[in-house]
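Summary for the funding panel

The consortium committed to producing paired sequence-structure records for every protein in the target list. Below we show the first two records in order, beginning with the earlier of the two.
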Amino acid sequence: MSKETEKTKVENQTENNEPTQSETAEGEQKVVARKEITKFSWTLNEIKNNWVAYIMIAPFFILFVLFTVIPVAFSFVLSFTTFNMLEWPDIVYAQNYIRLFLEDDIFLIAIKNTFVFAGVTGPASYMLSLFFAWFINELRPKIRAVVTLFFYAPSISGNIYLIWTYFFASDQYGLINSWLMRLNVISQPILWFQDEDYIFPLIIAVALWTSLGTSFLTFIAGFQVVDKSLYEAGAVDGIKNRWQELWYITLPTMRPQLMLGAILAITGSFGFGGVITALVGFPSPNYCAHTITHHLDDYGGQRFEIGYASAIATLLFLMMFGANILVNKLLRKVGE
């Protein structure tokens, strides 16, 4: 009997709650009724059968639990307390959240700025990464390597974004101000990173300029692994142009890469506060570029109001988690 026939037989038995056979360590066949085994027991049985794989992933799993799961859970608990790192936490229940939305006007400004910034840079950086990856994939291999490095370099060059402070310096020696004054467009230098009218557009431009990072490389890798025979099959089924190939064949095939790129775009757009601080300073003029990460750093890193900062961090986590769910649902519609 072939493996496919055995698999089909086992699936039919499972659906009908009929007994199925599983191999023991001695190679004997043991009959187990699917309805007689709990999900927990089945999980333990799978762990025993695949113990080598679980040992291989154990180091990462342990580190992930210690440095991600436990801190997130601990932060959620602290968000219902007042804690200053010196005294024992006092439970205040939902007082921190009430204070955030009803008493903290700066937090409301931070929410607005964060949603505007993430709503612009998140989708825009995602689409730019996808478009340039698609464009580069069509080039010859040698040219592709050079162009990939050209686009990827800003995201791995450390504080290279500070070059924008030279281009948009607020005196007459700044490159943009110098050109504009020579062309008689302006009569005095513009305070680019001090003027509220220019700060937000500039930081959005910097965010997009540095956005072609890991997700960009992930998309290029995704385009490389698409089976070429699918395009031939699509042509037989009525695919007529490159756009239809992209929508009905390429993107559905690289859905895992699209999901990873979406997660990276979400985390990048919500956590861009450090770059904004380096360009604009903290706090920004009239809090025009104040985001939730700035508010979190203010209360957690400077005022040491850990309970209040934990409430801010919890809300930021929920925002990112909700955005992730929304993007996941949208990606499921790709190719439909």
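The next record, for a separate protein in the list, is shown here:
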Amino acid sequence: MRMLRKWACSLAVAIVGLTAPSRAADISAIPGTNGGPAIIFVRGDLAIGDDKAFANVALAHSSAVVLLNSNGGLLLPGLEIGKAIRLKGFTTVVPEGFQCASACALAWLAGTPRFLSPNGRVGFHAAYLESDGRRMPTSTGNALVGAYLNQLNLPTSAVIFVTSAPPEDMRWLSLDDAQRNGIDARKFDPGSSGKAPETASTRAPTAPTPSSLTPPGQGAPTAAPDARPVRSPPGTFAEYPAAAAFSGARAAPVLDTPDKRAYRTRLRAAANGAPNFAGRLAVAEWGCGTSCMTGAVVDLQTGDVAFLPGSVSGWGLVDPKFKGAEYRLGSSLIVLSGQFNEEGPIGSHYFQFSDLQFRYLGSVLTSDDFKTQFGARWLSAIADRVSSRPLPQPQASAPDTLNGRIAEFVCGDNCYLTVVDDFGKKHDGLCVAAACAPWNKAAAIPQSLMGRQVSLRVGMGVQIDSSGTKQGRMLSFLEITVFPPGGPAQP
């Protein structure tokens, strides 16, 4: 068994796609709006661990569109990402100007449905092992690809198309090629009306308009970011100096509204810490979903509390090094990076804090083609393309009973159990059995159960998101028998 694990690890490192990656891909998400799907971005070459990173993001969303822009990378992470996409019933899209090759293209094939722009590129070639700078086709790798394509119910003609190009070449897929080879790929063209979608780079500048948003606990409306293309930051931290750092007797946070009382633990913790913003303020941050943050500031001298002007999500789309909020002790400027309130423009949004109010100064919107084309004004176009499609209704392919060992347990909107059977194959399913109830409540399984042998009754269940909305059906574990550490008693 130890030799088998060592061989599998070596295979994961050795079998590559178009190029061996030197760093992990950028995998991040923007939550859906108005009940629409989330947008999951995958950029860069796939490396070891990217499949886990994708799974962590995917588990937080009941429906999503996966945008792919990658030259390839390692084969096995690409296959595992594809399996996760199919398991969740996600849509995959390669938009105009994007390229998804090799291992990325295999992940794209798992989409239900798959979208391809006429000017996007999806390419395939045979799996290979790289040794001394030479790429050698590997029968093991191509067997894994063949098995994966069979799981996706693709015909033999598709398997031949995907694996026929040699390692040093690439076979690019057109929409006509897809149709001829039994690959259901749909045309993606949000601008098909004849007018290109309006983006931050094409709109004329407009003045910011007041938002109807009123931060919790505050009475006055706050000016919120719009989509004007500001080319340079509207200010620096040094240009908005604050008073000297506060020292003296502290006031307890004033919890005079239900919203403030709801976050009393966070606010009191901030008030007990050192000032970190605008001289005498302490910032409290908390999460509001996957890659989403909001918070409030506490005046350490008066105890007054003011909520941040909104939430930001997906700040990795602005710069992977950025945090959701940037501020300084000696400045009254605060910068919120990402998508504002899950529906505004994507960028860095500048505010000055004064008299318990955040005054909007302007935004520096994202500028590269990836971020501009799929900023806030294109997300709705993507959502419209997939929101009307019926949710996938997978059929159970597993037997009524499954025997194996517990390998993993993770929770998002739902909780999922992974069991490895006696042949080493992984089975992921909704954990809905009575035995799952305490695990689901704690969002964790006792460590003593990891690796334990189990017998499960398998069926189909329904995924339900955090709002209680029913999503797609998937494999589910209806009954679980956990055996003692030594396994079931022998007759």
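Regarding this second record: The longest strand covers residues 470-482. Residues 2-193 form a domain with the 2-enoyl-CoA Hydratase; Chain A, domain 1 fold (CATH 3.90.226.10).
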